[in-house]
Specification:
Layout: E1 4-10, E2 13-19, E3 26-28, E4 33-35, E5 38-40, E6 42-47, H1 57-66, E7 71-75, H2 78-81, H3 92-95, H4 141-154, E8 161-164, E9 174-179, H5 182-185, E10 196-202, H6 218-231, E11 234-243, H7 276-289, H8 291-296, E12 314-324, E13 332-335, E14 346-348, H9 354-358, E15 364-373, E16 377-385, E17 389-394, E18 397-403, E19 411-419, E20 422-431, E21 449-456, E22 459-462, E23 468-472, H10 475-478, H11 484-489, E24 493-494, E25 503-509, E26 518-521, E27 527-532, E28 535-541, E29 555-558, E30 568-574, E31 584-598, H12 605-610, H13 617-623, E32 627-631, E33 638-647, E34 650-652, E35 655-657, H14 666-674, E36 679-683, E37 700-707
Parallel strand pairs: 1-7, 6-7, 6-11, 8-9, 9-10, 10-11
Antiparallel strand pairs: 1-2, 2-8, 3-4, 4-5, 12-31, 13-24, 13-25, 14-23, 15-20, 15-23, 16-19, 16-21, 17-18, 17-20, 21-22, 25-30, 26-29, 26-31, 27-28, 27-30, 31-37, 32-36, 33-37, 34-35
Keywords: Apoplast, Glycoprotein, Glycosidase, Hydrolase, Secreted, Signal
Protein name: beta-galactosidase
Family: Belongs to the glycosyl hydrolase 35 family.
Length: 708
C-alpha cells in the first residue's frame, strides 16, 4: 500500500489518521477499513512516544516497516502534555520529565470539584476499555458510553472511530477486541456493517516488581492472528506493544517496573528481538500474498497438514561492561535529612491521605510526630499502611521497613522500638511506587498511612488522631541534587563503605564508544531512583525479588541522547542499603544469531515476493528451498561460526549438539558462505554440503554465528 499510518488513541476512542502523500478517504464496511475505495488488511504496532527518545524514533519506525507493519499506534498521554490545568507541554524533552500515571490522566483532575472518574459525570468525560468497569457505575455507565461515542463522531474528523473492549459501541463507532486470543474470545462486530478489529494483541505480559516474567511466544501470537483473520474475518491487528520502551522518571504505574514490554518484537532498547520479529514478519508477508482473496473472495477452509513451521532467525542479546564504577575515590555521598515534628510546615490532627497531600509532586511523604515517654522502655509500634512502602525511624534510627504488592497494596509493619524518657521523634517515610492506573472510582483510592499505635506494657495508645507533621518529598529532590547546578551546592562527603539508608550518591563517567545501546547495571543496589545528567532513567527496586529469588530488573536503559562524550553525572537516591561500587555502565548488543530448518520447512515467505519468474526450472526450484538466513545488527558482521551441522543435530537454537548424522563439510560450507558478511543465506541442500551424509534419514540444518 502507498503511505504510512498512525493510529492515535485517546483512551479507547481511536481515530485512524493517514500520513501519506495525497491523503485519501477512510471509511469501512463489514469486511475492512476502506481507503480510497479499496479494502485494506492492516497490521499495526504500538510504540509510545514518551517511552523512547526522539532520536530512537526513526530506527523504530524503520524496523516496524521492515517487519511488515502498515501503521504505528500510540496513546496520547494527557498527564504529560498538561501536567497542570492550562499548562501545555508539547516538546518531548519536557514530556520525559512527567510524573506518575493514573491511566494517563493528570493528577490535578483529582481536585476538580464534583468529579467522578469514568462515569456520566460532567467534570469527567474521557475513557479507555470502559466495559471492564461499566457495571460498577450501574445506570450511569451506558449513558457515558453513548456520550463518548457522540462526542467523538461529532468532531467530524472524517475517519472511523473505535471503542476498545466495548461490545455495545454505538453506531457508527466500531467495537474492537483487546487481549491475547481474540480469534477465540471476541464476540464479533455488533453490526454486519462493521469490520472485525483487534486493537491490542498483547505481545507480552507487562512486568511488575516481585513477579516472574512470563513469555508469550511468537508461535502463539502468530497462530492467534491467523485464527482471527480466518475465523473472525479480521482485517486489522495491532500489536501491543511492538516496542515497549522505558518508563522514564516516575511514569510507571503502581508496582510496574521501569522496563516496559521488553519482550516485544522490538525490545526496550529498540533492538530486534528474534524470533518474535522475524516470525511475525513472515506471517505478515504470507497474509499479504493473499490479501485480495481474503478481502474480496469467498471463504473456504482446508488443512495444510500437521506440524507446519516457520523458519526464522533467533538472536541472543548480551551485555558487556564498558565502564566499571568500582573505585571509592570516584563516589561522593550525602545523607538525606530525617525530619522531626518541629521541622514541619504542614500539620494536621490526623493522618492525611498521601496522594491528596503530595499532589504527585513526589513519591515520598514524611509523617512526623513527637511522642512523650515517662521512662525508657521497649515498646511495640504498629503501622497500617495503604501502600506502597514504609520506612520507620525513631529518634533518627531506622527500626523497620515493609511494603505491599500490586495485588495487595495494604500492609502492616509491627516492630519493637526503644523509646527514651522524654520526647521521642517518630518519622515515618511513606513511599508510593507509581499511581493507580485502572479500575472504577480511581478518585477514591487511598495511599499512605491508615493507623498508628504504640503498645507499652499491654496498654495500646492510638496515634491515628494525633498531632502529625508532614514533609512532601525529600530535601535532595527539592534542591535537585540530580542536576549539575543542584549537585554543586550540596555538601557531599567522601564515600563511606558503611552504608546507611536514605543516601544520595554521585559519580561521573565517560560515555562508552560506539552506537550500541547503553544500560546501567544496578544489581548491587536496593531501591531508589537514578539520574543521568539530570534526566531520570526511572525507579529501581533490586531488593524486591521474584519467587525464584531474582530481582525483577537489574539493567536500566540510558538513552544515548542522555549522554555527553565525557563527564556524565550519575546520581542515585538509595532508600535502603546499596553498594555503588558494584555499579557498571554496560553496552547492549545482539551478539549471536542462529537459525535452523528441515526439509519440511517452507522457504522464507518474504523471498516468494522477490522472486521473478524463471525459465530455468532448476534455479526456480533451488530458490524455493528451505534456507537458514542469518543477519547481524547494523555495523556488525559475522565473525565466527559457533556451530554448524547438516544432518540430524539435536536440540534447537537454545541448546544443541551434533547428532548421529552429520555432514563433515558443515563448518567449511557455512564459514565460506558467512564469515565477514553482514548477512548470509544457506539453503537446505544435499548438493550444497557435498552429498547426502545419511540417505533415508530426514535432515536438518542448524547454524549459530557470532556477530562483532
Amino acid at each position: 500500500m502507498v503511505g504510512w499510518w498512525w493510529w492515535w488513541w485517546w483512551f479507547g476512542l481511536v481515530v485512524v489518521v493517514r500520513a501519506a502523500v495525497g491523503g485519501g478517504d477512510v471509511t469501512y464496511d463489514g469486511r475492512s477499513v476502506i481507503v480510497d475505495g479499496q479494502r485494506k488488511l492492516l497490521f499495526s504496532g504500538s510504540i509510545h512516544y514518551p517511552r523512547s527518545t526522539p532520536q530512537m524514533w526513526p530506527s523504530l519506525i524503520s524496523k516496524a516497516k521492515a517487519g511488515g507493519l502498515d501503521a504505528i499506534d500510540t496513546y496520547v498521554f494527557w498527564n504529560l502534555h498538561e501536567p497542570q490545568p492550562g499548562q501545555w507541554k508539547t516538546r518531548h524533552c519536557e514530556i520525559h520529565k512527567g510524573s506518575g500515571s493514573t491511566r494517563g490522566l493528570p493528577f490535578w483532575l483529582h481536585d476538580v470539584p464534583g468529579i467522578v472518574y469514568r462515569s456520566d459525570n460532567e467534570p469527567f468525560k474521557i475513557e479507555n476499555e470502559y466495559q471492564n468497569v461499566e457495571k460498577a457505575f450501574h445506570d450511569k455507565g451506558p449513558p457515558y458510553v453513548r456520550w463518548a461515542a457522540a462526542m467523538a463522531v461529532g468532531l467530524e474528523t472524517g475517519v472511523p472511530w473505535v471503542m476498545c473492549k466495548q461490545d455495545d459501541a454505538p453506531d457508527p463507532v466500531i467495537n474492537a477486541c483487546n487481549g491475547m486470543r481474540c480469534g477465540e474470545t471476541f464476540v464479533g462486530p455488533n453490526s454486519p456493517n462493521k469490520p472485525a478489529i483487534w486493537t491490542e494483541n498483547w505481545t507480552h505480559f507487562y512486568d511488575i516488581y516481585g513477579n516472574i516474567t512470563k513469555i508469550r511466544y511468537a508461535q502463539d501470537i502468530a497462530y492467534q492472528v491467523a485464527l482471527f483473520i480466518v475465523k473472525m474475518n479480521g482485517s486489522y491487528i495491532n500489536y501491543y506493544m511492538y516496542h515497549g520502551g522505558t518508563n522514564f522518571g516516575r511514569t510507571a504505574s503502581s508496582f510496574v517496573i521501569t522496563s516496559y514490554y521488553d519482550q516485544a518484537p522490538l525490545d526496550e532498547y529498540g533492538l530486534i528481538r528474534q524470533p518474535k520479529w522475524g516470525h511475525l514478519k513472515e506471517l505478515h508477508a504470507a497474509v499479504k500474498l493473499c490479501s485480495d482473496t481474503l478481502l474480496y473472495g469467498q471463504q473456504s477452509n482446508f488443512s495444510l497438514g500437521a506440524l507446519q513451521e516457520v523458519s526464522t532467525q533467533m538472536s541472543t542479546r548480551s551485555r558487556q561492561k564498558a565502564v566499571e564504577l568500582d573505585s571509592p575515590e570516584i563516589w561522593k555521598e550525602w545523607n538525606e535529612a530525617i525530619p522531626a515534628f518541629d521541622d514541619s510546615l504542614l500539620r494536621s490532627d490526623s493522618l492525611l491521605e498521601q496522594m491528596n497531600t503530595t499532589k504527585d509532586a513526589s513519591d515520598y511523604l514524611w509523617y512526623t510526630a513527637s511522642y512523650q515517654q515517662s521512662e525508657d522502655s521497649q515498646s511495640v509500634i504498629t503501622v497500617n499502611s495503604h501502600g506502597h512502602v514504609l520506612h520507620t525511624f525513631v529518634n533518627g534510627a531506622l527500626i523497620g521497613s515493609a511494603h505491599g504488592t500490586l495485588r495487595n497494596h495494604s500492609f502492616t509493619l509491627e516492630t519493637t522500638v526503644p523509646l527514651n524518657s522524654g520526647l521521642n521523634n517518630i518519622s515515618l517515610l511513606s513511599n508510593m511506587v507509581g499511581l493507580p492506573d485502572s479500575g472504577a472510582f480511581m478518585e477514591r483510592r487511598a495511599a499512605g498511612l491508615h493507623t498508628v499505635t504504640i503498645q507499652e506494657n499491654q496498654v495500646v495508645k492510638n496515634l491515628t488522631n494525633y498531632s502529625w507533621g508532614y514533609q512532601v518529598g525529600l530535601l535532595g529532590e527539592r534542591l535537585q541534587f540530580y542536576t549539575e547546578e543542584g549537585s554543586s551546592i550540596a555538601q557531599w562527603l567522601n564515600f563511606n563503605s558503611s552504608s546507611q539508608p536514605l543516601t544520595w550518591y554521585k559519580s561521573k563517567f565517560d560515555a562508552p564508544g560506539g552506537n550500541d545501546p547503553v544500560a546501567l547495571n544496578l544489581g548491587s543496589m536496593g531501591k531508589g531512583e537514578a539520574w543521568i545528567n539530570g534526566q531520570s532513567i526511572g525507579r529501581y527496586w533490586i531488593s524486591f525479588h521474584t519467587p525464584d529469588g531474582s530481582p525483577s530488573q537489574i539493567w536500566y536503559h540510558i538513552p544515548r541522547s542522555f549522554l555527553k562524550p565525557t563527564d556524565n553525572l550519575l546520581v542515585l537516591f538509595e532508600e535502603e542499603i546499596g553498594n555503588p561500587l558494584g555499579i557498571s555502565v554496560d553496552i547492549v548488543s545482539i551478539s549471536k544469531v542462529c537459525g535452523h530448518v528441515s526439509d519440511s520447512n517452507p522457504p522464507p515467505v518474504v523471498s516468494w515476493r522477490r522472486e521473478m519468474p524463471s525459465q530455468n526450472k532448476h534455479e526456480k526450484h533451488h530458490g524455493r528451498r528451505p534456507k537458514v538466513q542469518l543477519r547481524c545488527p547494523p555495523k556488525r558482521n559475522i565473525s565466527k561460526i559457533l556451530f554448524a551441522s547438516f544432518g540430524s543435530p539435536s536440540g534447537d537454537c537454545k541448546s544443541y549438539a551434533v547428532g548421529s548424522c552429520h555432514s563433515t563439510n558443515s563448518m567449511v560450507v557455512v564459514e565460506k558462505a558467512c564469515l565477514g558478511k553482514k548477512m548470509c543465506s544457506i539453503p537446505w541442500s544435499n548438493k550444497k554440503f557435498g552429498g547426502d551424509p545419511c540417505p533415508g534419514i530426514p535432515k536438518r540444518l542448524l547454524i549459530e554465528a557470532e556477530c562483532q
